[in-house]
Design goal:
Its EC number is 4.2.1.51. One of its GO terms (biological process) is L-phenylalanine biosynthetic process. Helices cover about 25% and strands about 35% of the residues. The strands form 2 sheets. Strands 1, 2, 3, 4, 5, 11, 12, 13, 14 and 15 form a 10-stranded mixed β-sheet that branches. A 5-stranded mixed β-sheet has the order 8-7-9-6-10. It is built from 8 helices and 15 strands. The protein folds into 3 domains: about 1-80 and about 175-185, 3-Layer(aba) Sandwich (D-Maltodextrin-Binding Protein, domain 2), CATH 3.40.190; about 80-170, 3-Layer(aba) Sandwich (D-Maltodextrin-Binding Protein, domain 2); about 190-280, Alpha-Beta Plaits (2-Layer Sandwich), CATH 3.30.70.260. It is elongated and about 60 Å long. It is α/β, with parallel strands linked by helices. It binds prephenic acid. Prephenic acid binds near residues 11, 13, 79, 121 and 123.
Protein backbone atom coordinates (compact mmCIF):
# COMPACT_ATOMS: atom_id res chain seq x y z
CA UNK A 1 0.00 0.00 0.00
CA UNK A 2 1.22 3.51 -0.81
CA UNK A 3 0.75 6.35 1.68
CA UNK A 4 1.20 10.08 1.20
CA UNK A 5 2.46 12.39 3.91
CA UNK A 6 4.26 15.65 4.65
CA UNK A 7 7.67 15.83 3.01
CA UNK A 8 10.42 15.88 2.08
CA UNK A 9 11.84 12.61 3.50
CA UNK A 10 12.80 12.75 7.18
CA UNK A 11 9.74 14.53 8.64
CA UNK A 12 8.06 13.17 11.75
CA UNK A 13 5.04 12.50 9.53
CA UNK A 14 7.30 10.34 7.32
CA UNK A 15 8.39 8.36 10.38
CA UNK A 16 4.74 7.83 11.38
CA UNK A 17 3.74 6.91 7.80
CA UNK A 18 6.40 4.17 7.65
CA UNK A 19 4.37 2.36 10.30
CA UNK A 20 1.46 1.98 7.84
CA UNK A 21 3.10 1.71 4.40
CA UNK A 22 6.41 0.63 2.86
CA UNK A 23 5.98 3.03 0.00
CA UNK A 24 5.64 6.67 1.12
CA UNK A 25 5.10 9.65 -1.20
CA UNK A 26 5.32 13.30 -0.17
CA UNK A 27 3.34 16.52 -0.42
CA UNK A 28 4.20 19.92 1.04
CA UNK A 29 0.93 20.66 2.88
CA UNK A 30 -1.56 18.64 4.90
CA UNK A 31 -4.43 20.03 2.81
CA UNK A 32 -2.89 18.57 -0.36
CA UNK A 33 -2.35 15.21 1.43
CA UNK A 34 -6.03 15.01 2.42
CA UNK A 35 -7.08 16.05 -1.11
CA UNK A 36 -4.82 13.40 -2.66
CA UNK A 37 -6.61 10.71 -0.61
CA UNK A 38 -10.08 12.17 -1.26
CA UNK A 39 -9.50 12.17 -5.03
CA UNK A 40 -8.25 8.56 -5.02
CA UNK A 41 -4.59 9.30 -5.88
CA UNK A 42 -3.47 7.48 -2.70
CA UNK A 43 -5.04 4.78 -0.53
CA UNK A 44 -3.76 6.26 2.71
CA UNK A 45 -2.57 9.61 4.02
CA UNK A 46 -0.89 10.46 7.34
CA UNK A 47 -1.40 13.93 8.82
CA UNK A 48 -0.46 15.44 12.21
CA UNK A 49 -3.58 16.48 14.11
CA UNK A 50 -2.54 17.41 17.65
CA UNK A 51 0.58 17.99 19.73
CA UNK A 52 0.88 17.75 23.51
CA UNK A 53 2.60 21.16 23.80
CA UNK A 54 1.26 23.21 20.92
CA UNK A 55 -2.25 21.77 20.52
CA UNK A 56 -4.19 21.43 17.31
CA UNK A 57 -2.84 21.36 13.80
CA UNK A 58 -5.76 23.44 12.59
CA UNK A 59 -5.01 22.95 8.88
CA UNK A 60 -5.48 19.19 9.37
CA UNK A 61 -8.72 19.63 11.33
CA UNK A 62 -10.17 21.85 8.60
CA UNK A 63 -8.99 19.57 5.79
CA UNK A 64 -10.63 16.43 7.25
CA UNK A 65 -13.83 18.35 8.05
CA UNK A 66 -14.15 19.51 4.43
CA UNK A 67 -13.11 16.37 2.51
CA UNK A 68 -14.64 13.02 1.72
CA UNK A 69 -12.21 10.90 3.73
CA UNK A 70 -12.30 8.51 6.68
CA UNK A 71 -10.00 7.98 9.66
CA UNK A 72 -8.73 4.39 9.83
CA UNK A 73 -6.14 4.63 12.62
CA UNK A 74 -4.40 7.08 14.91
CA UNK A 75 -0.67 7.04 15.58
CA UNK A 76 0.89 8.60 18.66
CA UNK A 77 4.65 9.19 18.64
CA UNK A 78 7.09 10.94 20.98
CA UNK A 79 8.66 14.02 19.40
CA UNK A 80 12.26 14.76 20.38
CA UNK A 81 13.77 17.66 18.50
CA UNK A 82 17.42 18.36 17.72
CA UNK A 83 19.07 21.58 16.55
CA UNK A 84 21.09 20.81 13.41
CA UNK A 85 23.53 23.09 11.59
CA UNK A 86 26.86 23.19 9.75
CA UNK A 87 28.44 24.85 12.83
CA UNK A 88 27.36 26.61 16.02
CA UNK A 89 27.45 29.93 14.11
CA UNK A 90 24.03 30.60 12.61
CA UNK A 91 21.60 33.52 12.47
CA UNK A 92 18.39 31.79 11.40
CA UNK A 93 16.50 28.77 12.76
CA UNK A 94 14.21 27.21 10.15
CA UNK A 95 11.57 24.59 10.91
CA UNK A 96 7.86 23.79 10.82
CA UNK A 97 5.86 26.34 12.83
CA UNK A 98 4.73 23.54 15.22
CA UNK A 99 8.35 22.52 15.91
CA UNK A 100 9.47 26.15 16.44
CA UNK A 101 6.60 26.59 18.90
CA UNK A 102 7.42 23.33 20.73
CA UNK A 103 10.97 24.66 21.34
CA UNK A 104 9.96 28.27 22.13
CA UNK A 105 11.49 28.44 25.67
CA UNK A 106 14.70 26.72 24.60
CA UNK A 107 15.15 29.14 21.69
CA UNK A 108 14.27 32.22 23.80
CA UNK A 109 16.80 31.22 26.45
CA UNK A 110 19.67 30.08 24.25
CA UNK A 111 19.25 31.99 20.98
CA UNK A 112 17.26 35.16 21.78
CA UNK A 113 18.68 36.98 18.74
CA UNK A 114 18.19 34.44 15.94
CA UNK A 115 15.53 34.90 13.27
CA UNK A 116 12.90 32.16 13.28
CA UNK A 117 11.80 31.02 9.83
CA UNK A 118 8.67 28.88 9.41
CA UNK A 119 8.98 26.43 6.52
CA UNK A 120 6.73 23.63 5.21
CA UNK A 121 8.21 20.89 7.45
CA UNK A 122 11.07 20.07 9.81
CA UNK A 123 12.87 18.22 7.00
CA UNK A 124 12.58 21.31 4.78
CA UNK A 125 14.25 23.31 7.58
CA UNK A 126 17.09 20.76 7.77
CA UNK A 127 17.50 21.04 4.00
CA UNK A 128 17.86 24.82 4.41
CA UNK A 129 20.59 24.22 7.02
CA UNK A 130 22.42 21.80 4.72
CA UNK A 131 22.42 24.37 1.93
CA UNK A 132 23.26 27.49 4.00
CA UNK A 133 25.84 27.77 6.83
CA UNK A 134 23.92 30.68 8.41
CA UNK A 135 20.81 28.52 8.95
CA UNK A 136 20.07 25.87 11.60
CA UNK A 137 17.16 23.44 11.34
CA UNK A 138 15.04 21.78 14.03
CA UNK A 139 14.06 18.18 13.37
CA UNK A 140 14.62 14.55 14.27
CA UNK A 141 18.36 13.98 15.04
CA UNK A 142 18.61 11.26 12.36
CA UNK A 143 18.35 14.05 9.78
CA UNK A 144 21.91 15.13 10.64
CA UNK A 145 23.20 12.34 8.45
CA UNK A 146 23.29 13.31 4.76
CA UNK A 147 22.31 9.78 3.74
CA UNK A 148 19.00 10.29 5.57
CA UNK A 149 18.13 13.09 3.18
CA UNK A 150 18.16 10.57 0.31
CA UNK A 151 14.99 10.74 -1.70
CA UNK A 152 14.41 14.37 -0.84
CA UNK A 153 15.09 17.07 -3.38
CA UNK A 154 18.30 18.90 -2.51
CA UNK A 155 18.98 22.33 -3.86
CA UNK A 156 22.22 21.32 -5.63
CA UNK A 157 23.67 18.17 -7.15
CA UNK A 158 26.81 18.33 -4.98
CA UNK A 159 27.11 15.53 -2.39
CA UNK A 160 25.73 16.82 0.91
CA UNK A 161 27.71 16.72 4.19
CA UNK A 162 26.49 15.59 7.56
CA UNK A 163 25.22 18.33 9.84
CA UNK A 164 26.40 18.86 13.40
CA UNK A 165 23.93 18.07 16.16
CA UNK A 166 24.22 21.33 18.10
CA UNK A 167 21.75 20.23 20.82
CA UNK A 168 19.35 17.34 21.42
CA UNK A 169 16.03 17.11 23.24
CA UNK A 170 15.32 20.81 22.90
CA UNK A 171 11.50 20.53 23.07
CA UNK A 172 10.05 22.48 26.01
CA UNK A 173 8.59 19.33 27.65
CA UNK A 174 10.31 15.95 27.59
CA UNK A 175 6.89 14.28 27.24
CA UNK A 176 6.34 15.99 23.85
CA UNK A 177 4.14 13.78 21.63
CA UNK A 178 2.16 14.21 18.42
CA UNK A 179 -0.97 12.41 17.35
CA UNK A 180 -1.33 11.64 13.64
CA UNK A 181 -4.44 10.48 11.77
CA UNK A 182 -4.18 7.79 9.14
CA UNK A 183 -6.84 8.69 6.60
CA UNK A 184 -8.38 6.67 3.79
CA UNK A 185 -11.19 7.11 1.27
CA UNK A 186 -14.78 7.19 2.59
CA UNK A 187 -15.13 3.55 1.46
CA UNK A 188 -12.51 2.54 4.08
CA UNK A 189 -14.63 3.89 6.95
CA UNK A 190 -15.12 1.25 9.63
CA UNK A 191 -17.45 0.79 12.61
CA UNK A 192 -14.82 -1.36 14.34
CA UNK A 193 -12.36 0.29 16.71
CA UNK A 194 -12.34 1.67 20.23
CA UNK A 195 -12.47 5.36 19.27
CA UNK A 196 -14.69 7.32 16.88
CA UNK A 197 -14.35 10.76 15.32
CA UNK A 198 -17.18 13.00 14.12
CA UNK A 199 -17.43 16.53 12.84
CA UNK A 200 -20.71 18.25 13.71
CA UNK A 201 -21.97 21.46 12.14
CA UNK A 202 -25.23 22.36 13.96
CA UNK A 203 -25.80 25.54 11.89
CA UNK A 204 -27.67 26.83 14.93
CA UNK A 205 -26.91 29.02 17.93
CA UNK A 206 -29.03 28.91 21.11
CA UNK A 207 -28.36 28.63 24.85
CA UNK A 208 -27.49 25.06 25.75
CA UNK A 209 -26.68 23.80 22.23
CA UNK A 210 -23.21 22.59 23.22
CA UNK A 211 -24.61 21.13 26.46
CA UNK A 212 -27.13 19.12 24.41
CA UNK A 213 -24.33 17.78 22.22
CA UNK A 214 -22.28 16.77 25.26
CA UNK A 215 -25.28 15.18 26.97
CA UNK A 216 -25.88 12.91 23.98
CA UNK A 217 -22.63 11.19 24.97
CA UNK A 218 -22.63 11.69 28.76
CA UNK A 219 -26.10 10.16 29.17
CA UNK A 220 -24.82 6.98 27.50
CA UNK A 221 -21.66 6.88 29.59
CA UNK A 222 -19.44 7.65 26.59
CA UNK A 223 -16.25 9.50 27.44
CA UNK A 224 -15.14 12.21 25.03
CA UNK A 225 -11.37 12.29 24.64
CA UNK A 226 -11.50 15.59 22.78
CA UNK A 227 -13.84 18.31 21.58
CA UNK A 228 -12.60 21.21 19.54
CA UNK A 229 -14.50 24.04 17.89
CA UNK A 230 -13.38 25.47 14.56
CA UNK A 231 -14.87 28.43 12.72
CA UNK A 232 -17.30 27.28 10.02
CA UNK A 233 -16.03 30.02 7.73
CA UNK A 234 -19.63 31.06 6.99
CA UNK A 235 -19.92 33.92 9.50
CA UNK A 236 -18.23 35.19 12.65
CA UNK A 237 -19.22 33.19 15.76
CA UNK A 238 -20.43 30.18 13.75
CA UNK A 239 -18.64 26.95 14.61
CA UNK A 240 -18.32 23.29 13.81
CA UNK A 241 -17.23 20.79 16.44
CA UNK A 242 -14.66 18.02 16.12
CA UNK A 243 -15.60 15.27 18.58
CA UNK A 244 -13.51 12.21 19.52
CA UNK A 245 -15.37 9.62 21.58
CA UNK A 246 -13.99 6.61 23.46
CA UNK A 247 -16.52 4.20 21.91
CA UNK A 248 -16.85 2.37 18.58
CA UNK A 249 -19.64 2.94 16.06
CA UNK A 250 -20.34 -0.80 16.32
CA UNK A 251 -21.70 -0.11 19.84
CA UNK A 252 -25.41 0.51 20.27
CA UNK A 253 -24.80 3.39 22.73
CA UNK A 254 -22.64 5.14 20.11
CA UNK A 255 -25.27 4.64 17.36
CA UNK A 256 -27.90 6.10 19.73
CA UNK A 257 -25.67 9.07 20.56
CA UNK A 258 -25.06 9.65 16.85
CA UNK A 259 -28.79 9.60 16.12
CA UNK A 260 -29.35 12.22 18.80
CA UNK A 261 -26.47 14.38 17.50
CA UNK A 262 -27.88 14.15 13.96
CA UNK A 263 -31.19 15.44 15.35
CA UNK A 264 -29.45 18.37 17.07
CA UNK A 265 -27.63 19.17 13.79
CA UNK A 266 -30.73 18.85 11.59
CA UNK A 267 -30.13 22.32 10.11
CA UNK A 268 -26.49 21.53 9.38
CA UNK A 269 -24.57 18.28 8.91
CA UNK A 270 -22.64 15.51 10.67
CA UNK A 271 -19.56 13.91 9.09
CA UNK A 272 -18.78 10.49 10.57
CA UNK A 273 -15.05 9.94 10.06
CA UNK A 274 -15.16 6.39 11.41
CA UNK A 275 -13.99 4.16 14.24
CA UNK A 276 -10.36 3.17 14.66
CA UNK A 277 -7.69 2.06 17.12
CA UNK A 278 -4.59 3.78 18.46
CA UNK A 279 -1.08 2.68 17.64
CA UNK A 280 1.92 3.92 19.62
CA UNK A 281 4.99 4.18 17.41
CA UNK A 282 8.49 4.61 18.81
CA UNK A 283 11.39 5.15 16.48
O1 LIG B 1 7.46 18.88 9.96
C1 LIG B 1 7.35 17.69 10.30
O2 LIG B 1 8.30 16.95 10.51
C2 LIG B 1 6.00 17.15 10.47
O3 LIG B 1 5.81 15.97 10.29
C3 LIG B 1 4.90 18.07 10.93
C4 LIG B 1 4.77 18.16 12.45
C5 LIG B 1 3.44 18.90 12.84
O4 LIG B 1 2.82 19.53 12.01
O5 LIG B 1 3.08 18.85 14.02
C6 LIG B 1 4.70 16.80 13.03
C7 LIG B 1 5.22 16.50 14.24
C8 LIG B 1 5.86 17.54 15.10
O6 LIG B 1 4.86 17.95 15.99
C9 LIG B 1 6.31 18.70 14.31
C10 LIG B 1 5.86 18.95 13.05
Amino acid sequence: MQAVTLGPAGTYSHRAARAVADDVAFRESVTSIVQAVADGSFERGVVPIENSIEGSVTESLDAVANSEVSVVQEIVTPIRHALLAQSANFDVVASHSQALAQCRSYLDENYPDVTLEAVASTARGVERARADPTVAGIGHPDNASASHAEGSQTESDAPADDLEIIAEDIQDQSSNATRFLVIGPESARSDAGGKSSLVVYPNANYPGLLLELLEAFAERDINLSRIESRPSGNRLGDYLFHIDADAGLYEERMQDALEEVEGIARNGWVRVLGSYDTRHVLY
